[in-house]
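A further point concerns the way the authors explain their paired sequence and structure data. Nothing conveys this as quickly as seeing an actual entry. An entry of this sort, consisting of the sequence and the corresponding backbone structure tokens, reads as follows:
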Amino acid sequence: MMRPFDIAAEISDGLTLLRVSGDLDASNVEALKSSLDGGGGSASTKSVVIDLSECDFIDSSGIAAIVEAWHGSNGSKVSELVLAGPRGQVERILAITGLDAAITIFGGADEALKALADDGPLSVAE
């Protein structure tokens, strides 16, 4: 059963959790970009977790939006972006593009939020 596309933002203590569900593609990528601008609409947000556990599909426009936010090229005030819970096609695309080795990915949103809250900024092990 296909889930409808949706993005839900939760903001707390300088952390933003963006829960993406359904298919993330060119028809709705602007919603993700808008949510990422200023860290989900909050200028005080420094770290963003994109929860992809309910995202069924991602195309190149979705990947590009994530990379732009990760590099800060979208003009956001986000200092750190991590991903959580990718599965199936989304997980495969992250592996094929090499983003799984570049962007920190957690098994789930709770794990990502705890790590960011406890440890401060993260870096990818080399």
Notes: The beta strands are 6-12, 15-24, 47-58, 80-84, 105-106. The two ends are 39 Å apart (CA to CA). Helices lie at 29-36, 38-41, 60-71, 88-97, 99-102, 109-119.
